[in-house]
Write a structure and sequence with these properties.
about 130 residues, mainly beta, Immunoglobulin-like, 5-stranded antiparallel beta sheet, 4-stranded antiparallel beta sheet, 9 strands, elongated, Co2+/Mg2+ efflux protein ApaG, ApaG_domain, ApaG_sf
Length: about 130
Amino acid sequence: MITQVTKGIKVSVQTTFEGTFFKNYKMHYAFGYTITIENQSKNAVQLTARHWDIFDSLKEMETVDGEGVIGKKPVIQPGKSHTYSSGCLLASPIGAMRGFYEMVDLTSIEEFEVEVPTFKFAAPFAMN
């Protein structure tokens, strides 16, 4: 598990290899990730947007921006956490993601970024 804390917001990431499949005559590698966002600060915060840089060893880096996470803009109270799972398809068995969340401190209305540490994807058979 990879963990990082930014401005009292702790982000932990766990990855899994989900398997392979063929699509349009090409092999694809499916990876899952579960992220827990824990509010260790004294104020409630809301996650409003996300930014991802997706690295695939066989392709150009892809950037993805969007509102919230999996269709939600969670409010996280002090001492509480929000956990969600998502996935990523790669053209190769090795890759990585990194990024940040845009957050709002609901007491001060200050907007800030919370870094998501780089997390790696590797199919078990690719690590030999």
